Amino acid sequence: MSDHPGARAEADGIRRFWEGLGLPGLVDVHTHFMPERVLRKVWAYFDALGPLTGGVEWPITYREEEDERAALLREFGVRAFTAMLYPHKPGMARWLNGWAAGFAGRTPDSLHTATLFPEPGVAGYVREAVEAGARVFKAHVQVGAYDPADEALDAAWGLLAEAGVPVVIHCGSGPAPGKHTGPGPVARVLARHPRLRLVVAHMGMPEYEDFLDLAQRYGEVRLDTTMAFTDFSERMAPFPRQSLPRLAALGDRVLLGTDFPNIPYPYLHQLHALERLDLGEEWLRAVCHDNAARLFGLPG
Ligand SMILES: [Zn+2]
């Protein structure tokens, strides 16, 4: 059992949640694992209320060692999870991908994750990562401060579309906008690569409706729930109630994501935030497990 304060009670609550739905566990497509010194920098950034926090107090709830964090997810009953990592400058992605391959090797219940950046050689290392077994990519438009429609990425997007490998992309303008955030740049990528499996992180917060539009237009676009609908996010960027029917209708393309461990509240709160949308148990089963299990071909 983990040393995290209250871990036993929280794990019990989380297990009750998915057992009550008749699920074999959860699949979380948006959890962060990265090289220790990079993660420490991210935490320091949140502690200092860096621009990405929108100036809002952001106490990290799960500040344990790597093996402890993975163990916690297992105690929660998360069957599969990702290692979202991303560069903020050129020359870093290939190194991160090497680390992520090692993490995937020592963490068999994680989904081998890789990342990319618009730079010379990107198509080459994306191909290498896919050949090495990467099952999901992460792109961070705000932190990377690049245009996802940058020509330098075109071959990489084409390759990922062809391979059917999903890309979780932080492209909404929340909690803080970037030069290239918002639906426009992503729409340009999709116009060129309509089969690209983009998973819009945070439901595209705060441009929820624009990203729902893109998901309606492109059948391979999905949305992850990361931090959406929680008390924390609803205060900053409330999800428009009138769009709940659209969220219900897209229930086969919404995926549970949480931002564990970098969240300012307990993991269980994200699950309750989904439950209180009142979209029904079938919707919850699809979102919390089945959609991602199908996308990643997890054994039943
Ligand atoms: Zn994240």
Automatic annotation (TrEMBL):
<dbReference type="Pfam" id="PF04909">
    <property type="entry name" value="Amidohydro_2"/>
</dbReference>
<protein>
    <submittedName>
        <fullName>Amidohydrolase</fullName>
    </submittedName>
</protein>
<dbReference type="InterPro" id="IPR032465">
    <property type="entry name" value="ACMSD"/>
</dbReference>
<dbReference type="InterPro" id="IPR032466">
    <property type="entry name" value="Metal_Hydrolase"/>
</dbReference>
<keyword id="KW-0456">Lyase</keyword>
<dbReference type="GO" id="GO:0016787">
    <property type="term" value="F:hydrolase activity"/>
</dbReference>
<dbReference type="InterPro" id="IPR006680">
    <property type="entry name" value="Amidohydro-rel"/>
</dbReference>
<keyword id="KW-0378">Hydrolase</keyword>
<dbReference type="GO" id="GO:0005737">
    <property type="term" value="C:cytoplasm"/>
</dbReference>
<feature type="domain" description="Amidohydrolase-related">
    <location>
        <begin position="27"/>
        <end position="298"/>
    </location>
</feature>
<dbReference type="GO" id="GO:0016831">
    <property type="term" value="F:carboxy-lyase activity"/>
</dbReference>
<dbReference type="GO" id="GO:0019748">
    <property type="term" value="P:secondary metabolic process"/>
</dbReference>
